[in-house]
């Protein structure tokens, strides 16, 4: 990267010719950002061509930010990058004032970058372009373009490795059971996955002990850690780390290991309540039936007495008896 | 001692309604909310979704197929001991499931054991309910069945909360304790004092007489057809909505809307079934036709408002036909054979319930969307309602319940079974 910037710096002596050619090319092909060759009108020195070939099989990432003199808040753009790439960042600044009075600078994380960026003016818009290559994690970070007029307008490109999306709820399991912790990366393929366990503050890498831990990586974008025969000490925080060429990404999973006594207490409470309910219902019924039987027996006794008295009254009372039988027979 | 010849239509009957309410909540509410456990099982056993779905399917199948057994046993022993045993079995199944180490273990414990427990509870309870009510039978059944709707609401968040505190093993343990309340519900089922009704013929004689009963067989066919289409929206509506690019949260909300209108439909239809004179079969046919129509219209609706309206309509009409389906039966076969009739009916209509969803899924796989599935479901419902027209007393102006129960019994039973005529003139 340093060699490249040095070679680009060699173009500094002829800025006006550069600007003219840049403007001509910009008007001929506005906004296209696919290839690199037309933007470099000079015959490139051989060393630089070799470098370009080495990085030419990387993809090109192009990003734009538009600013005006009235932008009140700094404009930010978040870019997720997984593999080494060639990067082209363009900032455009529209103002009604004098374009030549605008001071254009680029910074990476507050560090001022050298003169390896291009500046171009068309009409009332100022374009600036910064091209570089991201190979490892040192080149990741925030790149900002600054337009200094009366106020300073800033546009920032934030480069980050892909994030792992995790569940926020803790995983609950029981002593003696086995559980599976999963880490998944949505649209990315890490080079490597590692698991860490922290019970307290110290992070300990999870080794692959035969009967305890099994790491399963059937798909490249996910990893599964199976822990067998859980103990209470196995609870705590687990971290899965995804390693990319351009950095690392981490996810936190909480594991809670309960003993069987925990749900057993409410279980027995509810069972006791059910037994109580059943007892109450059956006892109530026995009580009401006993009362009913007493009252029924009393009524039957009265009926028997009535019949006896009817019998003793003679045959003329057969008619009422028949009627009574008919009514009960329905 | 004078025994009541007519069902009391009240009194202890309302306690039976309460018991049936909680039972339908504990049986069907649990089954419907089992989807919450689904995700946990997939993660814990690392199995495919289709294999996990079999747990609930086996449970439902055993519950419905085992209904005749429950009914036969309750004819012999009365509903109370049978339901209490069923409650113990259901709780035991869940308890054993909490120790499961493999999927087969879950199939056997939840599917077979709990399923047979549920089989022993539901049919006897509804039959017992029909013994206690005649004029207000539909309302009582409707109120009892609202337990399903309310519990689907309450149990889903409850299960989620249990899962977040205790994971699936502890949750199944607590679910077993909750299911034990079925025993308490069974204790409430005091046998009604209709001696001359309940002791007519043994269970086997009743079953044979039912199988020769023309209207009963036609009714079974109708309900089987209805059952084939009935469950499809519950399973496939969410998937259909996601095909139409709905987010999961609004789709779940639509199902809740349908569930609320299902609840309202049950109670309204129960009240209407008793208030409107004439046979209940006519109302049942009306609701079934409307359900079929609303199902068939589902694929045509694209706009959210149309889908919400159809969901409300489907929920209301499908909830409305549920209590009526159970209250038509006593009018057809009489309260003496209600236990056996209900059991047999559940068993045969379960064929529809088992075949409907896979058929719908198959149509979806073949055609690529759910249009054919919904239309076929609607067609099944409409054909079921067509068969309902062939039932007796359909076009009469008087309700079949006004005919005396003893007449239905005497004309339907074989001459081989001796009629205990002496019981009819008991003092």
From TrEMBL, chain A:
Keywords: Cell membrane, Disulfide bond, Glycoprotein, Immunoglobulin domain, Membrane, Phosphoprotein, Repeat, Signal, Synapse, Transmembrane, Transmembrane helix. It holds the Pfam family I-set. The keyword Acetylation does not apply. One of its GO terms (cellular component) is axon. It comes from the Eukaryota. The chain crosses the membrane at residues 267-284. CDD domains: Ig. It is found in: Cell membrane; Synapse. Residues 1-33 form the signal peptide. It is a single-pass type I membrane protein. InterPro entries: Ig-like_dom (IPR007110), Ig-like_dom_sf (IPR036179), Ig-like_fold (IPR013783), Ig_I-set (IPR013098), Ig_sub (IPR003599). Residues 293-330 are annotated as: Disordered. Residues 74-145, 162-242 form the Ig-like domain. Residues 294-311 have a biased composition (Basic and acidic residues). The keyword Disulfide bond applies. One of its GO terms (molecular function) is cell-cell adhesion mediator activity. SMART domains: IG (SM00409). Interacts with SLC16A1, SLC16A6 and SLC16A7. This is Embigin. The gene is EMB.
TrEMBL record, chain B:
Residues 13-396 form the Major facilitator superfamily (MFS) profile domain. The lineage of its organism: Eukaryota, Metazoa, Chordata, Craniata, Vertebrata. The chain crosses the membrane at residues 12-31, 82-100, 106-132, 139-160, 216-237, 249-268, 280-300, 306-326, 338-359, 371-395. CDD domains: MFS_MCT11_13 (cd17423). GO terms for molecular function: monocarboxylic acid transmembrane transporter activity; symporter activity. Its main location: membrane. Proton-linked monocarboxylate transporter. May catalyze the transport of monocarboxylates across the plasma membrane. SUPFAM superfamilies: MFS general substrate transporter. It is found in: Cell membrane; Golgi apparatus membrane. The gene is SLC16A13. This is Monocarboxylate transporter 13. GO terms for cellular component: cytosol; Golgi membrane; plasma membrane. It comes from Aotus nancymaae (Ma's night monkey). Keywords: Cell membrane, Golgi apparatus, Membrane, Symport, Transmembrane, Transmembrane helix, Transport. Coiled coil: none annotated. PROSITE patterns: MFS (PS50850). It is a multi-pass membrane protein.
